[in-house]
Amino acid sequence: MIKNNMFRLPVLLVALSVLMFGYSYAASPQIQSCNVNAASSFYVVGANWGNYTSPISATAGQSNIPLTIRMYNENGCTLVGAMAKMPLVSNFTNANGSINYATDYLGTIQPYSFFTIVYNLDIANNTPIGPNDGVNEQVDLSWYYANTSSSTSGIYTASVFIPTKGSSRLQFNVSNHMLAAGAENNITLEVKNSGTGYEYDIVPYVTSSSTVNPVGAANEIASLAPNATGKISIPVYISPGAASEAVPVSMTINYVNPYGYNESEPITVAMYAAPYSGNLSLVPASQYIEEGIAQNISMYIYNNGYTPITNMTVQLSPQSPLNIIGGDGYFAIAYIPPHGKVALPLDLYVASSSSTVATLSASLSYIASGQAESSTRSISFLTPGYINITNTGITLLPAAPMPGSIFSMTGTLLNSGTSPASAVTITASAPRGISILGGNSTFIGTLSEGSPTSFTISFEASPTAKPGSYTVPLNISYINNINQKQSVEITVPITLSKPNSSLVTGVPTGTPGKYPYARHSGAGVLIDIIIAIIVIVVAVSLVYKHISKRKNAKRGAKQQK
Length: 561
Description:
single chain; Immunoglobulin-like; 4-stranded antiparallel sheet; 12% helix; 50% strand; elongated; Ig-like_fold; transmembrane helix; transmembrane; membrane
């Protein structure tokens, strides 16, 4: 009975090993065309700044800009522990502090599949910038083959062209703010290229409203060089009912940035719809009065006739919520020459209100061509709400991050203004040695007045980052109540503590893609189990043989007696 049991145990263990090996084999991807001895082949799809799906423009002197390289694995093998290194020669340095090379741990690359390599780079000030400029860089890939011993590895070197065509930044201004009500007008839009790259195919599209309608296509700026300014004529019709009012004109500017990507930017400008005024016009220097802030705005009176205007009196009367500060709105003007003008200084204040328009009435009496005349005017202003976004506090977790650690920043934004801010977005810029995890933009949404709203951004400090103080700029962009895009920037201090020398650090095993020398799949663990079982089977078999020999020896000795 003992003999039978001793014989069955190795058999059962061997059968169990075979079953587990079969499971391991079935669970592992089997690529029939995988040949580890064949020459490796990869195809470089292209490179762009920013994410693969959200490319951005970049220029010399920028820091911590993500570079994405898109490649295709033309091999039939599953590659594990893949790593991509890019030697840094002259134009780029690694944002985490390394000046020799940038590294991205890719993990597992499936056969016949696309994959991306991402480096966060600082771009040197002397990097060539232009419509056809770029830098050829080298990317060194290394990996291990799945389901083989750790000694079976591969390497491949690819050449990648990285475009350096400059940054994109357009500024818009309207040179003529007065339009004629009940007539067709041309709005002159001045476009300035404040970036370092060329902008292309710049064309505006006006949004129709109850007071403004486009009556034809605007002309297009085909190409705009850095620091150059172009003009676009936009034909619109202003309805008669908009006379003497501030008319918001909303439009979308479409253009192609230096890297060939389509972009658009919405803007809203305030225009004044002037009625037919004969020989006299009243035009304010600005059509905007921000809520809650006293502003000095000159009111210009134009003499459009061929004879002088004398003995003029002007009474300006604000309508709620508009107020005149430091005066009663009365002015006396002795003389205005033909085709001349005078400026009336005004300090205006708009209290908090749900309305986006404030009105100022004007009563005028004067003598023109020897005749006493009088007239009234009504001037409207757009009143963007007062928005004041501040950061009320920052908490780091852990409180004292160290080089090589991952930490989070949690802050609280407060709008202490009188109007809500919509589409609030936080864009962080990490300093050298610190990288942002999960993208550098955080969308908040609407930030109501007096309602604190928290946000969290995660970071990773490079192991080579030096302990000390760092500054993280946060750009907060938003849209106000009259559809204007605005932004404010705050800075957050971060301190990296010195590492605790008593801590023992090492490379953890079993983390896919992060450490190239660790095992990268569950199949590897099963193979270890199978090997252990086989060792046990062999040991049990040897013990069984040894016991059998001793029993046979004892039987032989008894028979000889």
